[in-house]
């Protein structure tokens, strides 16, 4: 390889979720040139927020909250808390109406908090927005393939445009999507193709009145739902009207993948009233979103997947360390560290 310094290295990152942005921010802070390509209009990936017309009226319909267990991630979270970017949810000291519970058959059971849960303020995608602030992000560009040229890599968009050549590429997207994109690298592509990710249907519903003062989030049992959250109870959100987010179980989501959003919201809400014991009412707004690659079926234990010895292509994301925001973030840091080690 030609002799390189941090400044002369040119890194492409595919995907502006938290793993790609954690990588990008670390590399950028170390003086490495970074360009991030993102197929959507905004950053955040599965740390996603749907905004209604009313100001600050939001649904976090992907990641609901996150926990912090690794000392490095705890450090980042502490900094974010000091900056007012992150806060605990529920705020435990506020008591009864701030609980996370388990709902089954109309019965409520308290779920004792074993660790702090955090959310970003004013919406879940805010951490990603902050991480992306100083980065060059090319939005609405979907990468279709990566072509090796000498010791560099050319990125091709799905419209056929060539987007330049790079010394290293970090692929920070769900494993199945990464596998398809890496077809020029058969052994890496093949190893990623075995990583299974489960789907999730999410329903978002607004109500003019409060649904309950008994809980803010609920794990659902004996239900087609796995989770319910009153998004308006999260810090920095409008406290009314009520913004309910429901997640269906992976099995139900899979079985109902081709159903229409109308059908899905109807069934998910009907089950919510039954399992929660809350009097049914009509939402003022209701929609559904389906996440094809929501959560990995299992974690792979390795923080990154790389291309042979060269480590010029590095794959990262939550599917490596375990389907959580923290896992995605740490995997992204590991990808950046591999780049830095090689310079
Ligand atoms: C419904 C749901 C609930 C969840 N709940 C929680 C929770 O409560 N707590 C928790 O810790 N975690 C939760 N998670 C998991 C958490 O959201 C993820 O672990 C984390 O956000 C993954 O980040 P990532 O960067 O690995 O991937 P992603 O967020 O998926 O980012 C990948 C990015 O790459 C982009 N992309 C994909 N393909 C291409 C391409 N070809 N070209 C350009 N861009 C591309 C995508 O648009 C996306 O922005 C949940 C996820 C879902 C879906």
Polypeptide structure, described:
This protein has 343 residues and is of the alpha/beta class. The chain has two domains: 138 residues, FAD/NAD(P)-binding domain, CATH 3.50.50.60; 172 residues, Alpha-Beta Complex (Polyamine Oxidase, Chain A, domain 2), CATH 3.90.660. The protein contains nine helices and 20 strands. Strands 7-6-15-16-17-14-18 form a seven-stranded mixed beta sheet. A hairpin with a 2-residue loop joins strand 10 and strand 11. The model has no long low-confidence stretch (mean pLDDT 93). Flavin-adenine dinucleotide binds next to helix 1, strand 2, helix 4, strand 14 and strand 18. Flavin-adenine dinucleotide (FAD) binds next to helix 1, strand 2, helix 4, strand 14 and strand 18.
Globally, the shape reads globular
The total beta strand count reads 20
Main β-sheet: number of strands, strand sense, barrel status? 7 strands, mixed
Quote the distance from N terminus to C terminus: 11 Å
The CATH top-level class label of the largest domain = Alpha Beta
Point out poorly predicted stretches: none
Fill in the CATH topology of the largest domain. Polyamine Oxidase, Chain A, domain 2
Oligomer: single chain
Which whole number gives the mean pLDDT? 93
Query: What fraction, in percent, of the residue positions are helical?
Result: 25-40%
Number of structural domains = 2
Number of distinct helices: 9
Order of helices and strands: EHEEEHEEEEHEEEEEHHEEEEHHEEEHH
Question: Would you identify the CATH architecture of the largest domain?
Answer: Alpha-Beta Complex
Q: What compounds are bound to the protein?
A: flavin-adenine dinucleotide
Strand order of the largest sheet: 7-6-15-16-17-14-18
């Amino acid at each position: 390889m030609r002799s390189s310094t941090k400044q002369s290295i040119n890194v492409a990152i595919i995907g502006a979720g938290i793993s790609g942005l954690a990588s990008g921010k670390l590399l950028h802070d170390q003086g490495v040139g970074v360009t991030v390509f993102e197929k959507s209009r905004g950053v955040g990936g599965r740390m996603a927020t749907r905004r209604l017309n009313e100001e600050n009226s939001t649904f976090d319909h992907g990641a609901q909250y996150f926990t912090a267990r690794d000392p490095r991630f705890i450090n980042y979270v502490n900094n974010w808390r000091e900056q007012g970017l992150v806060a605990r949810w529920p705020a435990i000291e506020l008591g009864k109406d701030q609980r996370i519970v388990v709902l089954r058959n109309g019965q409520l059971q308290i779920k004792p908090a074993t660790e702090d849960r955090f959310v970003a303020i004013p919406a879940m995608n805010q951490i990603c927005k902050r991480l992306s602030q100083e980065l060059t992000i090319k939005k609405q560009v979907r990468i279709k393939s990566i072509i090796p040229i000498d010791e560099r890599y050319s990125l091709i968009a799905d419209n056929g445009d060539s987007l330049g050549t790079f010394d290293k590429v970090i692929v920070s997207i769900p494993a199945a999507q990464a596998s398809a994109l890496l077809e020029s690298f058969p052994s890496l592509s093949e190893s990623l193709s075995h990583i299974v990710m489960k789907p999730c249907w999410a329903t978002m519903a607004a109500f003019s009145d409060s649904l309950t003062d008994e809980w803010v989030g609920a794990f659902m049992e004996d239900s087609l739902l796995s989770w319910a959250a009153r998004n308006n109870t999260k810090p920095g959100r409008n406290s009314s009207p009520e913004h309910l987010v429901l997640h269906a179980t992976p099995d139900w989501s899979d079985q109902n993948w081709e159903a229409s959003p109308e059908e899905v919201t109807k069934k998910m809400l009907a089950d919510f009233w039954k399992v929660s014991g809350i009097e049914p009412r009509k939402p003022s707004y209701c929609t559904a979103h389906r996440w094809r690659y929501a959560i990995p079926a299992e974690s792979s234990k390795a923080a990154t997947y790389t291309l042979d010895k060269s480590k010029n292509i590095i794959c990262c994301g939550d599917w490596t360390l375990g389907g959580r925001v923290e896992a995605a973030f740490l995997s992204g840091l590991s990808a950046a560290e591999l780049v830095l080690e090689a310079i």
